[in-house]
Amino acid sequence: MTRQSKRRAFLRTAVVAAAVGVAGCSDGGSSGDSTGNDDDDGTEDGTPTPTPEQTEADVETPDEPVEPEGQTEPDEPADVQSPKQAVDDWLSNTDNYDGNVNSLVRRNDVTIDVGVDDGSGGNFAFGRPAIRVTAGTEIQWIWQDPNSAHNVRERDELFDSGRPVTSSGKTYTVTLTEPGVYLYRCSNHGSALGMRGAVIVEEQQTLSGYPAVDEWLSEYDEYSGRLTDRTGEASVGVQVGASGPDGQNRSFDPVAVLVDVGTEVVFDWTGRGGSHDVTWEDGGFESSDNVRDASYTYSVTFDEAGVYRYFCEGDKPINGRGAVVVR
Predict the structure, then answer these.
(1) Distance between CA atoms of residues 261 and 223, nearest Å
(2) Do 128 and 239 fall within a single domain?
(3) What is the pLDDT of residues 217-271, one digit of tens each?
C-alpha cells in the first residue's frame, strides 16, 4: 500500500548482542577490522569495484558506527506505485526469494533469521526475504551464523543494526509505524551474494484494513472482519450458494478474499439455495447468468488493484454479498 504523507515515521529500535564475534567480514580471510562493506562499492549489480592492494600498514581501522539506541525519527520510506514490483526488483538476485511476499498482517511481532542457508550451501540469506505487515508491527532479526559477519541496513538507512558481526544470538528490533516499502540488505553480502530482504508495511485502518469492505459486509454474520488471504495464487475459487450461519445456501464462500493483480477468480455454483448470480457493484464487469445449475462457473480476471464489491441480485436483502480486494 502506498500513500502520500508528510508525516515522519517513528522507528523504535533496540539491539541486543549475544556471542558477538569480531566485526567485519570473517569469511573473506581479511583482517578482522575490515568490514568488507559493499554499500561503499558504488555498484548495485553485484560487481564490486577492484580494490588496490594494501599492505598491513596501509589498512585503516574504520570508526565503530554508533549502535542504534532508543527511538529515532527517520524520513518515511519512498512512495512507490507498485510495492510488489519494487520488492521483485530488489530481490531479483536473492536465491531464497520465490516471488511470494509472506503475509503476516495479523501478527503483532515477527522474527527474521539472519545468516541462514541461501540454498547454495552458504549462510548468506535472511530467513524471510519478503514480508507484509501492518503499521506498528515489531520486527526482530536474530543472528544465526557464527562464522560470517552480517548486519541489517535499510537501503535509505531508515534503520541500521550497525557494522556487520558474527554471532549466534544477537538481536535487532524495529517497530515500523509508517506505511511503505522498506528494502534492506547485509552490507557484506547484499550485492554479489544477494543477501537482501524487504518489508511492505500497510496502514491498519480497520479490522480488515479496507473500510469499504467492512461497511459493505457489516450486516453479514459470515464476515468476521478478516480477508481470506489467497495472494500468491493464479486462480482462486469462490462458492456461490454456500451455506451461511442461518443454514440457508445464499452466501459466497469465502465472502471476502484478498488476491494479487492478475488473479482469476472463478465463481463455482453449488446448485443449492435456488438460482444465483454475481452482479458487480464496482468494476463494470458483465454480470453472470442467474442459474441454479451446479455445473455453472463464471470467472473474472482482475488486472487492476482495488476493492470490488458484488452481490446476488435475488439474495442481496438476505445474504448474497461478497468482495474481492486486489493488490
Answers:
(1) 23
(2) no
(3) 888 888 888 889 999 999 999 999 998 887 888 899 999 999 999 999 999 999 9
